[in-house]
Amino acid sequence: AEVPEVFRIPIRLAPFDRDPQPPQRIEHAFRIGREHAFGQLQLEAARRQRRAVQRVFDHLHDVVAHELSHGVTAFSSNLIYLNESGALNEAFSDIMGTSVEFFAAPATANYIMGENLSSAPNVCLARSLQDPLSYGLPDHYSLRYTGVADNGGVHTNSSIANHAFYLAIEGGTGRTSGLGVQGVGAANREQIEKVF
Questions:
Q1: Which residues are catalytic?
Q2: 155-161 mean pLDDT
């Protein structure tokens, strides 16, 4: 699969090589500073950087692009990773991840973010842009999470902007609002990707 131009940056997996007893599996994806880790990646394969990155990207387009998008967001905005701004940070990463999946693998792409990470979906691993409520997530601002867990609901509330992105492309009726939206259609996906 071809890596979109925005992500043509070197990916360092060296920290895995420094650990004499690395864990055999990473069950989720995350970014800390300049380091990235991707779910269910066998770390032995990560020691061969080029092959490992290609292998991960072939199966986890959305997750890899999501994590790389956090890097882009961190260096191009002042979104604090807390509450609503943190939810927008997560949403932008979900939207980029989904967009890359449709770009790289259009025949199998879908609007579920991170579905290949784990067989047990949870709010931090998998989210539906199409139907957030099916994952127990809000699809409308009136349903947003206002507690303190998850940095004020950054993963939970990202589904609000995620769903707006889905509706802008595919159209439909918001289950909570009941409002109908005429999407631009999948053939015009790029128009909405540029807006978001």
A1: 67, 155
A2: 96
